[in-house]
TrEMBL record:
This is Fumarylacetoacetate hydrolase family protein. GO terms for molecular function: hydrolase activity. The lineage of its organism: Bacteria, Pseudomonadati, Pseudomonadota, Gammaproteobacteria, Pseudomonadales. InterPro entries: Fumarylacetoacetase-like_C (IPR011234), Fumarylacetoacetase_C_sf (IPR036663). Residues 19-217 form the Fumarylacetoacetase-like C-terminal domain. It comes from Ectopseudomonas mendocina.
Amino acid sequence: MSYQHQYIDGTRIHYPMGKVVCIGRNYAEHAKELNNAVPTEPLLFIKPGSCVVPLSDGFQLLADRGEVHYEAEIAVLIGKPLSRNPNAEEVLDAISGFAPALDLTLRDLQSELKAKGYPWELAKSFDGACVLAPFVPGDAVADLADIGIRLEINGEVRQDGNSRDMINPILPMIQHISAHFSLQPGDVILTGTPAGVGPLHAGDELVLELPGLSRFNSRAL
């Protein structure tokens, strides 16, 4: 199925879409809660655009592959091409919008893959693995080092983080990504998740927000 959304900043996103570049273990407390080492440099992986689904009124969970964990993240939408080694001004100019997102993980499968030294794609890049809310315009954010990300499930706050706590801040993170591969309009960057991740279940009611910028209700199906 193909989806189309008109976002507040006028950017039109089509699903399937561009690649989703993710950074793992970008909050020290999250790394610790999963007994992972805190990386000394950005830990990058990519989800294909085909795994993106809209947050909308609900999103589907896989029912037969073990626990599905939520990871609430700040998503950054790229609106202009970025090639190798952009300066700070070029990166800021290329940011089109910000949104809350869920990076869904098949945690049991990921643990098995990690134990064998295998890549994570089967646990991170399945259809529906990136749940994306509408974006607010890039210029709605006054300070990249002060963006909140918050997730409530069934009325209980599960994650409550801020970009100020990132190991790799947003701007230098995008510069680092662009040093390895180019970014194109429509690409999305997921900037890491704060502590508090856990399993999702069908029927869970969610509130996902960038406090002061956007707030959305949804449910796991």
